[in-house]
Amino acid sequence: MVDPLEPPPRDLPEKVLLRRIRQEHDQGAREELITRYLPLVRGLARRFASRGQPVEDLIQVGSIGLIKAIDRFDPDRGVELSTYATPTIMGEIKRYFRDKGWAVKVPRALQDLNVRLNRVVEQLTVDLNRSPSIADMAKACGVSEEEVLEALESGRAYNSLSIYGSGTSEEEDAFEIADCLGGEEGAYELVEQRRFLAPAMEHLDERERLILHLRFFEGMTQTQIAARVGISQMHVSRLIRKAVDVLRQTIVGEGEHDTRL
């Protein structure tokens, strides 16, 4: 009986290691096979190095595929482990790109079409000796031109860009994307307030509207308003309170009416 915790000799044939894994659940043999096939994982992961993901992350994902292949491999099928493991590793890496590599969630069909278009564009460029048009790509993929445009647009969602990163240059004085973003627009709130205030002002007489304008828009004191309008300061104070109460009741009443609607 082989001790499953004792590592097997490194010169054991692959078939012996596979037999130990299958029949004796030998973890040492399993680890040995994983070590032997890591170069295959690294080679397959490097094929995707240009897609914007760290190669080390892809190697880790591919290693998961390798482990699955070793655990599921049946030596009685008459195929080599490398033949069986390669599509399993590739599938795991592609699944990683499909499910986690996109900065924005994109429908699976568009993701798959975007991948197909990348291959089709390369082939059509060679065949046509020019850059293919949208119509060329649609015909080659058997889809509509609108679907091609949508898939190409969705490809932009694959990588995200930090708003604190430079948009064009790595120089110290290069602008950041955040510099181009708008801030909070206070005028929107002002427009909203005026939308409610304007109809309510119609409930006031001309003198009350003038007093409110002088007080809250021109910033005049009650004494200054009294001298301007020709009434006492106390009368101005009473008119302001009265006008504000009318506006408040009118606006609240209109708001309740809108809610009922």
H and E string: HHHHHHHHHHH
How many helices? The count is: 11
The span between the termini is 82 Å
Which regions are unreliable across 5 or more consecutive residues at pLDDT < 50? 1-5
Measured as a percent range, the helix fraction is 55-70%
Query: Approximately how much beta-strand content do the residues carry?
Result: under 5%
Rg (C-alpha, Å):
36 Å
The first-level CATH class name of the largest domain:
Mainly Alpha
CATH architecture of the largest domain: Orthogonal Bundle
| CATH topology value of the largest domain | Rna Polymerase Sigma Factor, Chain: A
Shape: elongated
Please give the number of β-strands: 0
CATH superfamily annotation of the largest domain: RNA polymerase sigma factor, region 2, helix turn helix motif
Observed structural traits:
261 residues, mainly alpha, Arc Repressor Mutant, subunit A, 3 domains
How does this model look, in words?
With 261 residues, the chain is an all-alpha fold. It folds into 3 domains: 14-100, Rna Polymerase Sigma Factor, Chain: A (Orthogonal Bundle); 108-180, Winged helix-like DNA-binding domain superfamily/Winged helix DNA-binding domain (Arc Repressor Mutant, subunit A, Orthogonal Bundle); 186-260, Orthogonal Bundle (Arc Repressor Mutant, subunit A), CATH 1.10.10. 66% of the residues lie in helices and 0% in strands. The protein has helices at 14-24, 27-46, 55-72, 81-100, 108-128, 134-141, 145-154, 186-201, 206-217, 222-229, 233-260. Helix 8 (186-201) packs across helix 11 and helix 10 (222-229) packs across helix 11 (233-260). The chain is elongated. Residues 1-5 have low confidence and may be disordered.
